[in-house]
Sequence to fold (571 residues):
Amino acid sequence: MNHCLIEEDKRKCKFKVGLYYEKPLIFVNVLLRVRIVSGEMEFDYVVIGAGSAGCVLANRLSASGRYRVLLLEAGPRDRYPWLHIPIGYAKTMFHPKYNWGYYTEPDPGMNGRSIYWPRGKVLGGSSSINGLIYVRGQPEDYEHWSVLGNTGWSWQDVLPYFIRSERNERGQDSFHGEGGPQGVSDVSSPNALARAFIDACVKAGYPANPDFNGESQEGAGPYQLTTWRGRRCSSATGYLKPAKGRSNLFIKTGAHVCRVGFSGIRADSVVFRQGGLEQTVSATREVILSAGALQSPQLLQLSGIGDAALLKHHGIDVVLDRPAVGQNLQDHLQVRVIHRCNQPLTTNDDMLSLWRKMRMGMQYVFQRSGPMAVGINQAGAFLRTRSEIDRPDIQFHFAALSADLPGAPLHDFPGFTTSVCQLRPTSRGHLSIKSADPMVCPEIHPGYLSTETDCRTVVDALRVTRQIAAQPALSKYILDEYKPGQQLQSDEELLEFARDTGVTIFHPSGTCRMGRDNAAVVDAALNVRGVSGLRVVDCSIMPTLVSGNTHAPAVMIAEKASDLILADAGS
Fold:
């Protein structure tokens, strides 16, 4: 710790390391809790990033009271009210205080467009700003991880961690838990259009599925959401808030990590900036990167782990030549089909009416119910584009509202959106640092629609969307197809529509790939290969993208990682 900060603590008799709640303490107690060594603060574990995974680690690693744990987060505390209101998703999509607001480089597959990539910059990370959908993926996703050589990551290996994390309002069964920190709830009062979408899928020949996280994912049904009693349950509220009173857990916000420090090949310190000051903390056991699929590889590169030529170009000392860092970038590309509705049933209508907005507000304030309590997407489906495919390859998110882009102003007409994405894209992108300056965002190349398989799947997905919309259960509510519009019919036209309008559905993964081959960044225990004292625990470790939303898998990864870390510590 900077010397002037220590003196300030002495003067004020208060320990300020960005704690979740600052606590008056006499300085002797500070010394008992954290040992000051050579002007640095020393902890057992330093976790970088308080997102979906980092909050889990902070809770689990500090639970025994044996280890001093520091959690570093670049963003602020999660005090903004809209972070906790499910429909507040729209308020944080472009909020510069709570969102990193990345843009990709111009992407050839998107006709040279730069795509906006929101990422959470607040306690809870992206779990504080996401669309709240609780989906685990398909068992085959994890079986594939295991086949790739990642021992301990099969479906039967990871299912107990999903169950352990869950506090599901449906209760306990062989697929769900009810005692975990992660609140999971049903949509209490779904919009009539959401029910119509499910009915239309069934009439089109697809199965109904009341539980996408049960025995099978395939079919159409309601989403469960990461909400509890009408409020968002982020990793910050589910995992971090209950742990805030532990004397061995320290949470520092507004701390932008610059790099990990090494003694030889052992990671033993973290350098970060806060308030214009550069500070260093020591980690006696491990440094854990949980900064996400964009910033974890960025921090590895800034710390000297990455492609040696790239690092030397930016004047960074090479600790380990690992060209795979930042490679294998995967994401779900969503293409949005928008229909104009012939009845005033949509959230667009709610927002156009002062009385309906007041009613929404009163429902939420007094009952924690209504549109404000359920988020954007209430229903969805996991379907196959072709009969010969052995499992669902596309996912739908159905929203009773419409806008040109996620989080953009709603249209001034009644509208609803059927968003579809390919579950397991074969396209791959990459990212790399632009500068040795940690404040400069990385260069992101998503590589969307760069393979024939992905191009064919997105066209097929749009045709399936039209097939569903044509069913009487849904068509009776449709005035017309606003986008793409019925004038676009050929495969070439639909593919061009996807390239012109497709956007991220916010699931970047894979950039610190787990594996046992020499090109893998981390091993099956999530240790960075070739160095010691350093792990990566977030969606960047995924060898392949899971078939669905990524918050629940991120929590699972952190739950499993916490057991691996504590086992190595002898606990």
User: Anything to note?
Assistant: The mean pLDDT is 92.
